[in-house]
Specification:
The protein is mostly beta strands. It has a domain of 110 residues. Helices cover 6% and strands 50% of the residues. The chain has 2 helices and 13 strands. The protein has a 6-stranded antiparallel beta barrel with strand order 2-3-6-7-5-4. Strand 10 and strand 11 form a beta hairpin.
């Protein structure tokens, strides 16, 4: 999920697209000082489709119906107010590395912290799926995490927990207070368990 590394290039690319872009000019500086800078949009765009490539090979596809950047705020941020989808790729064969979709997202630029909300769904190259209503991605720590109910679909396992933490590739994870259907190896005469009684569950 190498999304943030491409974010500045996305904003630069917006300068040259036909999307409805709005800029704040120098002559408006005096009027801006009389307004609430926290709510002043400094860049916006509609129907954004961005492809980021490296050495001629596609690495990232971003789609967003609308973005709004608030560059004058004390903590500059960008909102994806109508949802966002990311697809990252591994190699020259356009093999999908991961996907993420959400109804809304915000990037706190100084903190390099993303928050996605509303029908958040992440899938990695191994087919593991995460579904939750709120997801944070800390670029500095290269971690994704949530403090709300989250569902992980991993092969035949369907596990629901209250919060989780994982690496940004969603390969190793810890799920808190898990419950759900698990496939486990048992003796032939014993039925398999379909729920857990443990506080945390870690991927193997």
């Amino acid at each position: 999920m190498n999304i943030v590394n491409s974010y500045n290039r996305i904003l630069v690319a917006l300068l040259f697209t036909g999307s409805a872009i709005l800029f704040i000019s120098c002559k408006d500086k005096s009027s801006l000082e009389a307004t609430n800078q926290e709510s002043t949009i400094t860049l916006q765009g509609d129907s954004i489709i961005h492809i980021d490539s490296e050495n001629g090979h596609r690495k990232l596809l971003l789609k967003a119906p609308r973005i709004e950047q608030y560059g004058l705020a004390a903590e500059p941020y960008t909102e994806f107010v109508k949802g966002v989808s990311f697809t990252t790729y591994d190699d020259t064969t356009l093999t999908v590395s991961s996907t993420l979709v959400a109804d809304y997202a915000i990037l706190l630029e100084k903190q390099q912290l993303w928050e996605a909300k509303g029908n958040v769904r992440v899938q990695n190259s191994e087919g593991r799926i995460l579904e939750t209503e709120q997801l944070f991605w800390n670029q500095k720590l290269e971690k994704i995490y949530s403090n709300v109910e989250s569902k992980i679909i991993d092969g035949g396992n369907i596990i629901i927990g209250t919060g989780f933490e994982a690496d940004q590739e969603f390969k190793d994870y810890t799920l808190r207070r898990p419950k759900g259907k698990l496939l486990v190896d048992t003796e032939p005469t014993k039925p398999s368990a379909d729920s857990t009684q443990i506080d945390t569950l870690k991927s193997k």
